[in-house]
Write a structure and sequence with these properties.
4 helices; Porin; 16 strands; mainly beta; globular
């Protein structure tokens, strides 16, 4: 998709030059080591396996949520593999690392183009104030881009995240980012410039780039607030996105932990713009917006093979096209989990998914549905 103007690149260049010019002021104390070319060279390998059994609670809705007029054609239940992720981090020296993330579960799909490779980037960390990232990664726009995987919070990414990802605002993108923290992590910044054509695309389709900026403020140790803004350009028209999010984490005694996440975002929907057949279209007329609230209560068991019991509930509103009437969707996700190892290294979850559309379209996935999942995940 198209992206922001050359002025955005100039802004990024100026900020980058200012940061570079101040690097000596941030410099850490000199070490006695004379040659860092092989210092701390090693690598780390991580794996994530997620599978589930899904059953529809509606006889005319399949397990994916699509409505069927003929109930005999409906497949109401199935075993699925969601993730078989392998990630590596290579420590080149004390400041340079390289990371690769692939999802081998995508090989189950016939169309593999742009799916298997997720992360592939190089990171230079000078200190807490300044880090540089180059390659393919999540562009730090919104709360969910900061999670290594959403399964630590819920059973899957929010619908809002998936929609904004398809429109180039979130999910895996190719570009560059600078980020860091100030004042003992009270204030953090993330500035990203990227192609805006989504992942695994050889090159950009125009000369301008998407620009996103995220600012985090942590007034208290239990509260983090994030502000997000994005700018792009498509078919000689300006596009934008913005949002606000918050995280609240509070221990309740020795056994309970309460965690609340909330997020609101609104932005240009390029997908709806391209699908529209209206003449002389105005890009500003194609907007999407949504919010969600996710609350989670964790009870620590501290048993040798059962670490915690967790209950959570996510309520999400999504309007995929604000210009279209009756396109809204409410989703409710109650979830109960048993954690067997680590924080989320081994988890078994019972999940309910309730979709309530403002208007049903028979024969499509835009139809009220209810389903249940039994999902396991193992992370190492």
């Amino acid at each position: 998709m198209k992206s922001c103007s050359k002025h955005s690149i100039s802004v990024f260049t100026i900020i980058f030059a200012m940061l570079i010019s101040n690097l000596p002021a941030f410099a850490q104390s000199d070490s006695l080591i004379d040659d860092y070319s092989y210092f701390k060279r090693n690598f780390k390998l991580n794996a994530l396996v997620v599978g589930r059994y899904t059953t529809s609670l509606n006889s005319d809705i399949d397990y994916l949520g699509k409505h069927f007029a003929d109930k005999e054609d409906v497949v109401t239940n199935s075993f699925e593999m969601q993730y078989v992720r392998l990630s590596t981090t290579f420590f080149i020296n004390d400041r340079i690392t390289s990371s690769i993330l692939v999802n081998l579960a995508e090989f189950k799909n016939e169309q593999l183009h742009g799916k298997v490779l997720e992360n592939a980037f190089v990171r230079y960390r000078h200190n807490n104030y300044f880090s540089l990232m180059l390659g393919q990664f999540r562009p730090f726009f919104g709360l969910e881009d900061l999670h290594p995987f959403q399964l630590d919070n819920s059973y899957a990414w929010s619908r809002q995240y998936s929609l904004f990802g398809r429109n180039g605002w979130q999910s895996f993108q190719i570009g560059a980012a600078v980020f860091g923290s100030l004042e003992s992590n009270i204030l953090s910044y993330y500035l990203t410039v990227y192609n805006g054509n989504n992942r695994n695309v050889m090159g950009d389709n125009d000369s301008s780039k998407n620009l996103t900026f995220r600012l985090e403020y942590m007034p208290f140790s239990v509260l983090r607030i994030g502000l997000n803004a994005g700018k792009a350009r498509y078919k000689r028209q300006n596009a934008n996105a913005y949002g606000i999010d918050g995280q609240f984490k509070q221990p309740l005694g020795n056994r309970f932990d309460l965690d609340i996440n909330a997020e609101y975002k609104k932005g240009t929907n390029f997908e709806a713009f391209r699908l529209s057949e209206a003449p002389l279209q105005n890009l500003d007329d194609y907007q999407m917006e949504g919010y969600y609230f996710l609350s989670r209560l964790r009870y620590k068991l501290h048993a040798p093979r059962l670490r915690a019991l967790e209950v959570s509930f996510r309520q999400e509103y999504l309007d995929r096209n604000t210009a279209a009437e009756n396109d809204e969707l409410m989703t409710y996700v109650p979830m109960m989990s048993l954690v067997f190892a680590g924080t989320y290294d081994a988890k078994l979850s019972l999940v309910g998914v309730i979709n309530d559309y403002n208007r049903n379209h028979p024969g499509t996935a835009q139809y009220d549905s209810n389903k249940m999942l039994l999902q396991f995940q193992v992370a190492y």
